[in-house]
Amino acid sequence: MAPTQPISRAALAAVFVAVVLAAAVSTFAITGSTGPGPPWRGSAADIPCNVPPLPGSLVDVTLADYGSGMMGGTWPMMATVQAQPQVVEAGTVSFLVRNRGQYVHELTVLPTTSAGPGTRITGPDGTVSEEGALGHAEASCGAGEGDGIPPGGTSWLTLDLPPGQYELICNEPWHYQAGMYQILTTT
Ligand SMILES: [Cu+2]
Known about the structure:
CATH topology of one domain: Immunoglobulin-like
CATH class of one domain: Mainly Beta
Bound molecules: copper (II) ion
Low-confidence stretches: 1-8, 10-39
Number of helices: 1
Largest sheet: 5 strands, mixed
CATH architecture of one domain: Sandwich
Mean pLDDT: 81
Distance between the termini: 72 Å
Radius of gyration: 20 Å
Helix content: 10-25%
Number of strands: 10
Shape: globular
Strand order of the largest sheet: 2-1-4-8-7
Structural class: mainly beta
Strand content: 25-35%
CATH superfamily of one domain: Cupredoxins -  blue copper proteins
Order of helices and strands: HEEEEEEEEEE
């Protein structure tokens, strides 16, 4: 083993620069966006898709993520479901769902639990129970069920929702735990 050497000033400076750069990059990841929409990096360009007219109250849903490569690149460090608006009239409700992230996402609509949003138990496969699910938007440029919405892709879903609270989630493995849930209220 080589004798311990004092750390050179140059090495210290290099470490300092690296730390500052890392801090700057992570700050940008959180606060970098100045325009409308979520401040996530890695947002995908839209895949062209002709969305048909959607009936009832319209809820725009944005699925987004940031992060790079935990768990072999399959786990976004953070991800989000954003609904606009978050309160709509009960009855016919259409969801227009856009994936602006860099991972495949999907939307599942569930009744809320009494424990509140984000409290569902994640199983060993990284997903939560979809018992009682009211519908999914997970097609690539299509309605309803599918293999997931690719980055930049669009899916949609129309449901008849009585007054209540619903949890909009992404149930790709580990995405719920990464923050992909949002409450929608119908009145
Ligand atoms: Cu997801």
